[in-house]
Structure formats: structure tokens, C-alpha cells
Amino acid sequence: MKKLSRVEKKMRRRRFFFQSLLLISFILLLSAFALNSNLFIIDNIKVLGNNKVQKDNAINVSSINIGENIFKISTRSGEKNLRKLPYIKEVKIKRKFPRGIIIDIIERKAIIQIKEISSIMLLDIEGNILDIVDSEDEKLPLLLGLNIGDKKIGNNIFSMTEIKEGIEFITEGQAAGVLSKMKKIDMVDNNNVNIVLIDGITVAFGTLYNVKYKVSLLNEILKDIEEKQLPCKMILMDRGDNPIIVLNEEGEG
Question: How many Å apart are CA 165 and CA 22, to the nearest integer?
């Protein structure tokens, strides 16, 4: 390989310097154009995946506005603001060049409602209070008797209640697919829990001890009742290890 002379090395460094300077100048000019050109002024904002969160509210909370330059907005700041809304679990804000913004939302879903005195709290599977309303939602199971501390939207009740078995009942019931079949759950007495299912069957669940096993057992019983089309009116799980199925014709099985 030919060894470069001192003059050649100096010329190469000078050439590299001017090429770098030209590249930086080009980038600066391009940036100035992007930040000041009307070509990149936001004229539409789309909100996807929202059901509970209103579109206008999502846009307002994101602090992204029509008429702003698409390069001047902070997507990270907008996402951080939106995650403060109780119904939003995850959110991603994307630029759609040259003039669009997409706010893609994954919402939390209410799986149960808890009644305390005159208020109804809507909870997701993680125990977050999504909303506090005055009237019951007929599509959600209603739980009575679970004492909650600080009842504020956005708080997590799983970190506030001392009844761990009650929490386990909710999480295991949801995981087994049983919770959605329930209309009312009475936990006023933790040793005598009673359940009314959507189809009218009542369940004397008994104590909350060994919740995971009992929820799984209840799930299997309900599957068996459905498969055999048994005219069941009551399931007794509070009278020993073997549940009793009471049929409409007053028989027991």
C-alpha cells in the first residue's frame, strides 16, 4: 500500500472537513425547512382503539393540536399524559407524514362492579378503579361486602383491601371464565359467601378458604350442568368436600 505524503494527508483532511461541513449545512437547512414549512403542519389527528375514552378528550389530554408543526410536538409527553386517564392501559402516538397524527389506544376493561353504600366502583382485572357511578351496570357482576379504603378513580383497590381471598376470588374467577357468569356476589360474611348466576342458579360458596380450588371446582360443575342440561337451581359448596347440586324437581345430586 502506497504511503501518503504529508501534503496528501493534509489534502485528505481538508477534503473530509469540507464534506462534513457540507453535510452538516445540508442537515441544518433541511431541519429549518421541516420546522418552518407549511408542508408539515398537522391537519388531522386520528384516535384508534378508544371506546370509553372520548376522541376529543384524548386529543386534549395529549396536548397535540391541529396547526402545530409535526416535528415540534412531543409524542413521549403526549403518551405520558394519556396514561394518566384511568381507562387507558397503553398508548402509542405516531406521526403520519406529512400532516397526520395517530393516537393508538389500548383501553382497560371493567370486569366487575363493587357496591359500597351508595356508590358503584367499576374495576379492571388488575384492581384499578376505572369509574365511580351511581347506578349498576347490568352487564357486570355486582360484588357486595368488599371493604375499600380510599375510593378514588385511578386508585388500585388490590393494594388497599386486606381481604386477599376476595381479591383472589376476582382474579381466579376471571381467569377461569366463571366471573362473567355471575350476576351477584355477596361477601358481607367471608365465611358464608353466596352467589347468584346470570341464569338464576344460586351458589352457596361458603368460606373463601382455598379459593383457587373452589373456583375451579365451580367451573367444572357448571360445565357439567350445561353439558347434561340439568335443571339446576342451587349448588351447595358449603357442606363438606363434596358439592351438592339441587335440581328444580327438588332432587339432589
Answer: 69
Give me the residue label for grid cell 363438606: 240
- pLDDT tens profile 37-64: 788 899 999 999 999 999 999 999 999 9
> In the structure, what pLDDT confidence band is assigned to residue 146 with cuts at 50, 70 and 90?
confident
The three three-digit cell numbers of residue 151, written as one number: 375510593
105, 101, 73, 103: which is closest to 90 by C-alpha? Answer: 105
Strands 100-107 and 88-96: antiparallel
Nearest one of 119, 132, 128 to 155, comparing CA atoms? 128
Look up residue 96 and give its amino acid.
K
Quick check: 73 and 42 in contact, CB under 8 A?
Answer: yes
Neighbours of 170 (CB within 10 A): 24
Is the overall model pTM greater than 0.70, yes or no? yes
CB 202 within 8 A of CB 238: no
Residue 7, Cβ neighbours under 10 Å: how many? 8
> Is residue 232 a contact partner of residue 201, using CB atoms and an 8 Å limit?
yes
**Whole-number Å distance between alpha carbons of 49 and 105:** 5
